[in-house]
């Protein structure tokens, strides 16, 4: 069983479209994250949810909207896709928020988004 | 704002060599530091986690050290193998985790 799974693995779409990426974790973790890895392989945090509540929202365009229906799922919806959104998006989870704790992050295998 | 630098950016070694990957970070007020491995087209796999109170952590042929006060960590890989070829990322952890750009390692047979 995959601990953190994201779908789809590849997503090719036209500029201006709206798309969603889904993420599920079966580890019983409280916190989930979305990271973006750009063409230079630089990995940056986008959002973090703890028990369905948003705790981190980095400087991300409001075209990106995370949704957490329960603590095992954190989906990423992107409106009006732009060329610059092309990247690999990684979902991750951890047991708690990480403040003062020593838990590890577990990552999904990524969704490669290509906007044409 | 935390900034993480990893040196070298790329490294190619013959099989069997011992090697050291370096990581430096600007904000030493961290909870822990994690080293990850990323294989092409795959997600990240956590290799080692060093708590802020620890100096080092070992797992098999891997040994990671942490000098929090100077903002440095090293990952030592002993007796490297072709299967070790991957990108290695360090991530000092203060919410959120901040990643370096990684060291791309190639171990040739």
Whole-angstrom Rg of chain B: 13 Å
The pLDDT mean of chain B sits at 92
User: Which shape of chain B, going by the Cα principal axes?
Assistant: globular
In helices, the fraction of residues of chain B equals under 10%
Report the count of strand segments of chain A. 11
The proportion of strand residues of chain A reads: over 45%
Multimer state: heterodimer
Which pair has the most extensive contact? Answer: A-B, 27 and 24 residues
Low-confidence stretches of chain A: none
Order of helices and strands of chain A: EEEEEEEEEEE
- Strand portion of chain B, in percent? over 45%
Please describe the structure with a list of short key phrases separated by commas or semicolons.
heterodimer; A: 116 residues; mainly beta; 7-stranded mixed β-sheet; 54% strand; B: 109 residues; 5-stranded mixed β-sheet; 10 strands; globular
Structure description:
By secondary structure, chain A is mainly beta. Chain A has no helices and 11 strands. In chain A, strands 2, 4, 5, 6, 9, 10 and 11 form a 7-stranded mixed sheet that branches. Chain B is built from no helices and 10 strands. In chain B, 0% of the residues lie in helices and 56% in strands. In chain B, a hairpin with a 5-residue loop joins strand 4 and strand 5. In chain B, the strands form 2 sheets. Chain B has a 5-stranded antiparallel sheet, with no helix packed on it. In chain B, strands 2-10-9-4-5 form a 5-stranded mixed sheet, with no helix packed on it. With 109 residues, chain B is mainly beta. The chains are: A mainly beta (116), B mainly beta (109). Chains A and B meet through strand 5 and strand 10 of A and strand 4, strand 5 and strand 9 of B.
């Amino acid at each position: 069983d995959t601990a953190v799974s994201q779908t789809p693995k590849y997503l090719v779409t036209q500029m201006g479209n709206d798309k969603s990426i889904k993420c599920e974790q079966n580890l019983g973790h409280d916190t989930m994250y979305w990271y973006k890895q750009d063409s230079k392989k630089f990995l940056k945090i986008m959002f973090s949810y703890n028990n369905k509540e948003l705790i981190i929202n980095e400087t991300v365009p409001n075209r990106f909207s995370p949704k957490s229906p329960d603590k095992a799922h954190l989906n990423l919806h992107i409106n009006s896709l732009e060329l610059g959104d092309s990247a690999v998006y990684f979902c991750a989870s951890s047991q708690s928020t990480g403040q003062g704790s020593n838990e590890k992050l577990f990552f999904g295998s990524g969704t490669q988004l290509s906007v044409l | 704002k935390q900034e993480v630098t990893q040196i070298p950016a790329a490294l190619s070694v013959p099989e069997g060599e011992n090697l050291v990957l370096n990581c430096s970070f600007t904000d030493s007020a961290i909870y822990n530091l994690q080293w990850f491995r990323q294989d092409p087209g795959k997600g990240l796999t956590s290799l080692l986690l060093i708590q802020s109170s620890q100096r080092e952590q070992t797992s098999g042929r891997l040994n990671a050290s942490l000098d929090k006060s100077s903002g440095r960590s090293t990952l030592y890989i002993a007796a490297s193998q072709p299967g070790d070829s991957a990108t290695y990322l360090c991530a000092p952890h203060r919410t959120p985790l901040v990643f370096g750009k990684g060291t791309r390692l190639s171990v040739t047979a």
